[in-house]
Amino acid sequence: MKNKSNRKDLNLKTLELFQICAEKGSLNAVAVDTGLSVSTVSHHLRSLEDYLGINLFDHTRRPMVLTQKGQLFLHNISDALHTIRKAKAEASLGDLDEASYLRLGIIEDFDSDIIPKLATYLSANLRQCEFMYHTDTSYNIIEMLRDRKLDIGIISNPPDRLAKLTERPLIKDPFIIALPSDPEQTISDLLSTMTSLPFLRFPKNMIIGRQIDSHLSRLGLNFPSKFECGNSQTLLAMVADGAGWTITTPLLLSRAKRFQSKLNIHQFPMKAFSRDLSIISSPDCSRLILDLVDKKMRKLITKYIIEATNEKNPWLAKSFSLIE
Questions:
Q1: Which listed site, 18, 25, 177, 275, has its alpha carbon 20 to 30 Å from 257?
Q2: What CATH number should be reported for the domain whose range is 176-272?
Q3: pTM higher than 0.85 for the full model?
Q4: Domain covering 7-92, topology
Q5: Burial, 65: exposed, middle or buried (Cβ in 10 Å; 0-12, 13-18, 19+)?
Q6: What Rg value do the Cα atoms of the chain yield, rounded?
Q7: Which of these, 88, 110, 105, 101, lies nearest to 144 by C-alpha position?
Q8: Degrees, nearest 5: CA angle 131-136-141
Q9: Separation between Cα atoms, residue 145 and residue 150, nearest integer Å
Q10: What DSSP element (H or E) covers 188?
């Protein structure tokens, strides 16, 4: 490839688009993610190749594949782009009043009680900032963070490692059993499967569902199940109506205030297990704003969830707590 060396076309945006194209392998996918037209994305890539005098992609293949020189170039610029993004984020947040945009992804476990208070707090402290709050599953939030569609996520930790993301452990949430307030069966009946009360479960495509199923499998337990639902409030409402029993957590129970008087909760009677929830951020998220969210979330969780729940159920005090 001839070196046209049109140096005025090389800029940070072009390098970032090249990096995204290398990850996505499709001009259409990059255009959708960035809001640019396909022709604009293509122009930036061609300008970069002209500047360097090499082919970064094998243009005869679909999906797009990097050439050997393209792979080397991507490797060499990735750390530099990360450093630049982080420096820009830190510089813009040297004064929190200068923050302009923050994208938060949060699982529904916190949605009703904590997030409105967090939003009010951030609005008061980041006065020039526009916010985007997104509620989704942990898996989807993780993918959005990796694709840089979110800055910060609050999730239930998956079993696999969170590559390329920064993690701050937040809360340990033990699994407990929830029964109707006047069940005919005892905990012993449930665990021996000598019961007509069905097990209401989370689906296996959710992290919490996989955690529960894996633990029950290790214990050699297999409960008959008639209903599967990804909404914890629906599961607890059905338990309160006497339709079955479920395995849940204190955090999820804390959101089900209107059902709590119709529920009996018990410590898991065999080997205890729990899930961890964390604050996750993209690699170039500002540490200042991450500290702000982390500190406030800890205060809100302690005041409105942990203290209230443990006061009603003292036996939870040692297991339901912040992770320091």
A1: 275
A2: 3.40.190.10
A3: no
A4: Arc Repressor Mutant, subunit A (1.10.10)
A5: middle
A6: 24
A7: 105
A8: 75
A9: 5
A10: helix 187-191
